[in-house]
Known about the structure:
- Strands 1, 2, 4, 5, 6, 7 and 8 form a seven-stranded antiparallel beta sheet that branches.
- Strand 4 and strand 5 (91-104) form a beta hairpin.
- The protein is 55% helix and 14% strand.
- Helix 14 runs antiparallel to helix 15 (576-593).
- The chain is an alpha/beta fold and 709 residues long.
Amino acid sequence: MRLESAHISNFKLLEDVTLHFSCDLRRPLSVIRAENGSGKTSILYALRWGMYGDKGIPQMRLTSAAKPPGQPVHVQVRLDFTTNDPYSDTESHFRLIRTCQEIPQEGDNYVRDRERRRLLRRTERGEVEIDGELIDGLIAMLLPLSLADVFFTNGDDVQRFISSGQQGDDRRQEAVHKAIRQILGLSEVEEAEKYLTSVTRKTKGELAGTGSEALQSALEKLNGIEDSIKEQEGRLSSTSERILHISEHIQRDERELDNIKGIGDLEAIQARIHALEKDIEHSEQEEVLVRKQMKEYFRSEDITKHLAKDKLLVGLTKLSDLADWNVIPGTSIEVLKDRLHLGICICGEQIQKGDARHAHVQRLILEQEEVTPQLDRLTALWHEARNRIDSESVDSESFIADKVTSLREQFTQCRDRRRQKEVELISEREKRGQIDEDRVNALTQRLQSSRGKLTQFHQDYGRIKGRIQQLEENRQLSEESVADEERKADLSKMLRRRVSVASDLVKLTQGTLERLKSIYVRRVSSRMEELFLDIVGADPTADATVFTGVTINEEYDIVIQTLEGRTLDADTELNGASQRALTLSFIWSLMEVAERRAPRIIDTPLGMTSGAVKQRMVETLTKPVESNGLPYQIVLFMTRSELRDIEPLITERAGVVTTLSCSKDYPKDLLNDWGEGIPAVRTCECNHSEVCIICERRNDADRFTLREV
């Protein structure tokens, strides 16, 4: 199927919008250029509604919020498309028209009548209406509703294919499983196999009814064995799913535990914390000791002598002068008292009490008694100064400077060592805070339990496989017994032929189913890996690569492999660009292998991508169809920023480029006023390098060529 054009009326702000799509196999790309809020997502929903009706979109109001309440609005989407007749391989042209009437209410409320649809075959002689009962069948054949997200993809939701989001384990990669089964037709073949098996059994029963009791007994035994095989195969499948799920649990728990253990061992961290606390305490004690030494040294006589050396030497000089003048030592008062006691003066004259000489000596004694304490202090100071102050014994300036520097360095080292230990202590305490010991214990216990269950499930799986093998051998023997009894009995030739045909059909469907599950899924897996590694630029053989492979396992889960032999969780360990690349690679490979000729419409495909990844993604998605390749069509809704830096590639690959603009963006972003009364979307023919009076935005002049309208 290829879309030719679409006309949208009154869907959101799309009042009268016509779009054309490239059907050129050499240039299969159609680009709809539109900024945010200009109608890209509305077009995606309009196309889905046109194809599937209300079932194809979330429950939503179709009309614009600007429409006045209470006034009926006629909503219509018309799709013109071409498809190949599966039997004649000739092209047929169709027009699908879906309409409804919606009455806007206050707020987001609305009243909508039943939607109507028409399917017209367009021929050279005019349009021929297709019976309404056939419309759903044709749409289901071309674009099944269950795969609407594959054909009409919202880029912001694209990761849902490969991740579980907030879903439970039983729904992990559900979209992947559904897409594989739907596009490869597994469900239909499985239903056919069940039906044909039932018919074959019924026909064999009818055949046995015309034969002997021995034949009927042998057939009943065979049916019982086949029922047991089906039961055991169901148990085997259930056990396999349990093994897968519990393996995923183990992998996630181990990853979480590894991340926690990556912080460090709790006991070792505790030991480092205690050691650091002791080191800090010791450093603090050293600081106190050094401070005390500094204080004592600055109070010491040595530093005082050094600091007051000059002044002390001046004082010592004056004391020496007093000694030279016999002012000190002060001993004259004792001599005078001695002379009075003897009554003889130093000169030899008699000193009698009451005479003038005696009175004079008395006055001298009194005067000396007043100055003696000072003389005593000066004398003591002189003696002590002579003993202690010696210019040669006073520490030199270099010695003092070295001593001060040494003390300062000791203090600085203690302080810096303490601060460093405090930083390390904070870091270790933060690590300890990140380790939830209860969580570690819970994970450890759960892993132990899970590994025990996994071992048990593997044992169960082996036992079930053994039972199935034994039952298969019993079935072979039972089939031989039935065949022997059939040869002995005179059975209806017609029933024999019916049984033979039914058995052949069962074998055919079983072979087809096995081929789809093995060969075709492997082809999808191989092609998906090739596309993904090419887009992300990964070389599986390089030493520094992150991704070494991507595969689809037997459970139809996408498994992402790394160099270390680990598998990555698409939810948490793939960035947004890689998630988009993987999802688009899966969709592309699936549609290629299934040879599904359907349009691939993607809104905002390049979000979260840039540089070489963006370039390679567009190159991969828009590669022209080779001569023997599967025809396809791709429509990308892209903003100016997404188009930036890949303009040459778009010029080469795009067959049609259409620009969308919304009047609500005037005057802040749009340069020109359209004169619209209410917000509306318009299209213009400007390509990715052009602007016109409809789409020109502010600051466009330097980047785009102005196109005349």
